[in-house]
Design brief:
- The complex is a heterodimer of chains A (about 130) and B (about 110).
- Chain A has about 130 residues and is mainly β.
- Chain A is built from no helices and eleven strands.
- Chain B is globular.
- Chain B starts with a strand and ends with a strand.
- Chain B has about 110 residues and is mostly beta strands.
- In chain B, the strands form two sheets. Chain B has a six-stranded mixed β-sheet, with no helix packed on it. In chain B, strands 1-3-8-7 form a four-stranded antiparallel β-sheet, with no helix packed on it.
- The chains are: A mainly beta (about 130), B mainly beta (about 110).
- The interface between A and B is medium-sized, with 23 and 25 residues.
Protein backbone atom coordinates (compact mmCIF):
# COMPACT_ATOMS: atom_id res chain seq x y z
CA UNK A 1 0.00 0.00 0.00
CA UNK A 2 1.32 3.41 -0.98
CA UNK A 3 1.71 5.73 2.00
CA UNK A 4 3.00 9.29 2.23
CA UNK A 5 3.47 10.91 5.64
CA UNK A 6 4.47 14.56 5.95
CA UNK A 7 6.09 16.13 9.00
CA UNK A 8 7.93 19.28 10.02
CA UNK A 9 5.16 21.84 9.89
CA UNK A 10 4.69 24.49 12.54
CA UNK A 11 4.70 28.18 13.37
CA UNK A 12 7.48 30.31 11.91
CA UNK A 13 8.03 34.05 11.73
CA UNK A 14 8.09 35.93 8.43
CA UNK A 15 11.55 35.70 6.91
CA UNK A 16 12.23 32.43 8.67
CA UNK A 17 12.92 28.95 7.38
CA UNK A 18 11.36 25.54 7.75
CA UNK A 19 12.09 22.08 6.34
CA UNK A 20 9.27 19.67 5.61
CA UNK A 21 9.76 15.95 5.20
CA UNK A 22 7.67 13.30 3.49
CA UNK A 23 8.22 9.64 4.31
CA UNK A 24 7.24 7.34 1.46
CA UNK A 25 6.46 3.64 1.64
CA UNK A 26 4.83 0.94 -0.45
CA UNK A 27 6.65 1.83 -3.67
CA UNK A 28 10.13 2.47 -5.07
CA UNK A 29 10.69 6.19 -4.59
CA UNK A 30 13.49 6.44 -7.16
CA UNK A 31 11.11 5.40 -9.94
CA UNK A 32 8.67 8.24 -9.32
CA UNK A 33 8.20 11.96 -9.74
CA UNK A 34 7.25 13.61 -6.47
CA UNK A 35 5.51 16.91 -5.88
CA UNK A 36 4.54 19.36 -3.18
CA UNK A 37 1.08 20.95 -3.34
CA UNK A 38 -0.27 23.44 -0.82
CA UNK A 39 -3.68 24.64 0.28
CA UNK A 40 -4.18 27.91 2.10
CA UNK A 41 -6.83 27.85 4.85
CA UNK A 42 -10.26 27.68 3.26
CA UNK A 43 -8.80 28.04 -0.23
CA UNK A 44 -7.99 25.90 -3.24
CA UNK A 45 -4.97 23.86 -4.25
CA UNK A 46 -1.71 25.34 -5.51
CA UNK A 47 1.11 23.32 -7.06
CA UNK A 48 4.43 24.21 -5.40
CA UNK A 49 7.06 22.12 -7.14
CA UNK A 50 8.26 18.77 -8.46
CA UNK A 51 11.33 16.58 -8.44
CA UNK A 52 11.57 14.17 -11.35
CA UNK A 53 12.87 10.67 -10.89
CA UNK A 54 16.35 9.19 -11.06
CA UNK A 55 15.95 8.40 -14.77
CA UNK A 56 15.36 12.11 -15.39
CA UNK A 57 18.25 13.27 -13.27
CA UNK A 58 16.05 14.46 -10.42
CA UNK A 59 15.33 17.70 -12.30
CA UNK A 60 13.20 20.10 -10.27
CA UNK A 61 10.48 22.55 -11.29
CA UNK A 62 8.91 25.26 -9.16
CA UNK A 63 5.92 27.55 -9.18
CA UNK A 64 6.81 31.19 -9.78
CA UNK A 65 5.52 32.11 -6.31
CA UNK A 66 8.19 30.02 -4.56
CA UNK A 67 11.06 29.88 -7.06
CA UNK A 68 14.31 31.01 -5.48
CA UNK A 69 12.95 30.55 -1.94
CA UNK A 70 11.92 26.88 -1.84
CA UNK A 71 14.07 23.86 -2.68
CA UNK A 72 12.87 20.30 -3.20
CA UNK A 73 15.25 17.44 -2.55
CA UNK A 74 14.98 13.72 -2.01
CA UNK A 75 16.91 10.85 -0.51
CA UNK A 76 15.75 7.70 -2.22
CA UNK A 77 17.86 5.54 0.09
CA UNK A 78 15.80 6.86 3.00
CA UNK A 79 12.52 6.86 1.04
CA UNK A 80 12.16 10.53 1.84
CA UNK A 81 11.22 13.76 0.10
CA UNK A 82 12.00 17.22 1.47
CA UNK A 83 10.89 20.80 1.03
CA UNK A 84 13.28 23.47 2.30
CA UNK A 85 11.41 26.75 2.67
CA UNK A 86 13.39 29.96 3.15
CA UNK A 87 12.41 33.62 3.32
CA UNK A 88 8.90 32.61 4.33
CA UNK A 89 6.03 35.05 3.83
CA UNK A 90 2.62 35.21 5.50
CA UNK A 91 1.08 34.13 2.20
CA UNK A 92 2.99 30.82 2.44
CA UNK A 93 0.67 29.81 5.29
CA UNK A 94 -0.98 26.60 4.14
CA UNK A 95 -1.31 22.88 4.53
CA UNK A 96 1.51 21.32 2.52
CA UNK A 97 0.90 17.96 0.87
CA UNK A 98 3.43 15.70 -0.73
CA UNK A 99 2.03 13.79 -3.67
CA UNK A 100 3.22 11.06 -5.97
CA UNK A 101 2.95 12.03 -9.61
CA UNK A 102 2.17 9.45 -12.28
CA UNK A 103 2.56 9.96 -16.00
CA UNK A 104 5.45 10.73 -18.30
CA UNK A 105 8.42 13.05 -17.85
CA UNK A 106 11.60 13.61 -19.79
CA UNK A 107 14.33 16.09 -18.97
CA UNK A 108 12.44 18.79 -20.89
CA UNK A 109 8.74 18.05 -20.49
CA UNK A 110 6.50 16.53 -17.87
CA UNK A 111 2.90 15.29 -17.99
CA UNK A 112 1.89 13.77 -14.67
CA UNK A 113 -1.13 13.80 -12.36
CA UNK A 114 -1.21 13.08 -8.62
CA UNK A 115 -2.30 9.55 -7.80
CA UNK A 116 -1.46 9.46 -4.08
CA UNK A 117 -1.35 12.21 -1.47
CA UNK A 118 -0.13 12.48 2.09
CA UNK A 119 -2.36 13.76 4.88
CA UNK A 120 -0.62 17.16 4.90
CA UNK A 121 1.29 19.27 7.41
CA UNK A 122 0.30 22.80 8.44
CA UNK A 123 2.77 25.65 8.05
CA UNK A 124 1.80 28.95 9.69
CA UNK A 125 3.86 32.03 8.94
CA UNK A 126 3.06 34.72 11.45
CA UNK A 127 4.73 37.13 13.83
CA UNK B 1 -0.06 29.89 -18.09
CA UNK B 2 -3.37 28.03 -18.22
CA UNK B 3 -6.13 29.20 -15.86
CA UNK B 4 -8.93 26.78 -15.01
CA UNK B 5 -12.38 28.08 -14.08
CA UNK B 6 -14.87 25.71 -12.48
CA UNK B 7 -18.63 26.17 -12.38
CA UNK B 8 -20.83 26.29 -10.52
CA UNK B 9 -19.10 27.23 -7.30
CA UNK B 10 -21.65 25.24 -5.31
CA UNK B 11 -24.04 22.55 -6.47
CA UNK B 12 -26.93 21.73 -4.11
CA UNK B 13 -28.41 18.34 -4.93
CA UNK B 14 -30.16 15.42 -3.26
CA UNK B 15 -28.85 11.85 -3.09
CA UNK B 16 -29.79 10.00 -6.24
CA UNK B 17 -29.64 13.09 -8.43
CA UNK B 18 -27.19 13.69 -11.28
CA UNK B 19 -24.29 16.10 -10.78
CA UNK B 20 -22.62 17.88 -13.67
CA UNK B 21 -19.44 19.82 -12.91
CA UNK B 22 -17.74 22.05 -15.45
CA UNK B 23 -14.08 23.00 -15.88
CA UNK B 24 -13.09 25.55 -18.51
CA UNK B 25 -9.48 26.27 -19.47
CA UNK B 26 -8.16 29.63 -20.67
CA UNK B 27 -6.36 27.82 -23.50
CA UNK B 28 -6.40 24.34 -24.94
CA UNK B 29 -5.21 21.60 -22.59
CA UNK B 30 -2.46 19.59 -24.24
CA UNK B 31 -3.39 16.03 -25.23
CA UNK B 32 -6.36 15.96 -22.82
CA UNK B 33 -4.12 15.99 -19.77
CA UNK B 34 -6.88 16.82 -17.30
CA UNK B 35 -7.61 15.26 -13.92
CA UNK B 36 -10.31 15.58 -11.26
CA UNK B 37 -9.83 15.26 -7.50
CA UNK B 38 -12.31 14.87 -4.65
CA UNK B 39 -11.65 16.44 -1.26
CA UNK B 40 -13.67 15.96 1.90
CA UNK B 41 -13.30 18.21 4.98
CA UNK B 42 -10.07 17.57 6.86
CA UNK B 43 -8.82 15.11 4.26
CA UNK B 44 -6.27 15.16 1.47
CA UNK B 45 -7.48 15.28 -2.13
CA UNK B 46 -8.18 11.95 -3.79
CA UNK B 47 -7.72 11.26 -7.49
CA UNK B 48 -11.03 10.59 -9.23
CA UNK B 49 -10.30 10.88 -12.94
CA UNK B 50 -7.22 11.31 -15.14
CA UNK B 51 -6.61 11.77 -18.86
CA UNK B 52 -10.12 13.35 -18.97
CA UNK B 53 -12.08 10.10 -18.80
CA UNK B 54 -10.04 7.38 -17.08
CA UNK B 55 -11.35 6.47 -13.63
CA UNK B 56 -8.78 6.11 -10.88
CA UNK B 57 -8.48 2.88 -8.93
CA UNK B 58 -11.49 2.27 -6.72
CA UNK B 59 -13.67 4.99 -8.24
CA UNK B 60 -17.17 3.67 -9.02
CA UNK B 61 -18.59 3.80 -12.54
CA UNK B 62 -21.19 6.40 -11.60
CA UNK B 63 -18.32 8.86 -12.12
CA UNK B 64 -17.51 9.78 -15.70
CA UNK B 65 -15.40 12.42 -17.38
CA UNK B 66 -15.61 14.02 -20.80
CA UNK B 67 -14.44 16.95 -22.85
CA UNK B 68 -11.52 18.19 -24.91
CA UNK B 69 -9.70 21.36 -25.76
CA UNK B 70 -10.92 23.92 -23.25
CA UNK B 71 -14.16 22.44 -21.91
CA UNK B 72 -14.35 19.48 -19.57
CA UNK B 73 -17.07 17.87 -17.49
CA UNK B 74 -17.20 15.52 -14.52
CA UNK B 75 -20.54 13.77 -14.18
CA UNK B 76 -21.79 11.79 -11.20
CA UNK B 77 -24.81 9.88 -12.48
CA UNK B 78 -26.53 9.20 -9.15
CA UNK B 79 -25.17 10.90 -6.08
CA UNK B 80 -24.40 8.72 -3.10
CA UNK B 81 -23.96 10.20 0.41
CA UNK B 82 -20.18 9.72 0.21
CA UNK B 83 -19.96 11.80 -3.00
CA UNK B 84 -20.73 15.10 -1.28
CA UNK B 85 -17.40 16.91 -1.30
CA UNK B 86 -15.36 19.55 -3.13
CA UNK B 87 -14.09 18.63 -6.59
CA UNK B 88 -11.07 20.18 -8.28
CA UNK B 89 -9.98 19.91 -11.87
CA UNK B 90 -6.28 20.09 -12.74
CA UNK B 91 -4.40 20.34 -16.01
CA UNK B 92 -1.02 18.69 -16.37
CA UNK B 93 -0.27 19.36 -20.01
CA UNK B 94 1.86 22.42 -19.44
CA UNK B 95 3.74 23.96 -16.54
CA UNK B 96 2.72 25.36 -14.15
CA UNK B 97 0.29 22.54 -13.40
CA UNK B 98 -2.81 24.45 -12.32
CA UNK B 99 -5.94 23.59 -10.38
CA UNK B 100 -9.39 25.05 -10.70
CA UNK B 101 -10.90 26.81 -7.68
CA UNK B 102 -13.22 23.91 -6.91
CA UNK B 103 -16.91 23.04 -7.01
CA UNK B 104 -18.63 22.10 -3.77
CA UNK B 105 -21.30 19.44 -4.11
CA UNK B 106 -23.53 19.80 -1.07
CA UNK B 107 -26.64 18.04 0.16
CA UNK B 108 -29.80 19.95 -0.63
Amino acid sequence: EVQLVESGGGLVQPGGSLRLSCAASGFTLSDHYMDWVRQSPGKGLEWVGRTRNKANSYITDYAASVKGRFTISRDDSKNSLYLQMNSLKTEDTAVYYCARALGYCSTTICFAYFDHWGQGTLVTVSS
Amino acid sequence: EIVLTQSPGTLSLSPGERATLSCRASQSVSSSYLAWYQQKPGQAPRLVMYDVSSRATGIPDRFSGSGSGTDFTLTISRLEPEDFAVYYCQQYGSSPWAFGQGTKVEIK
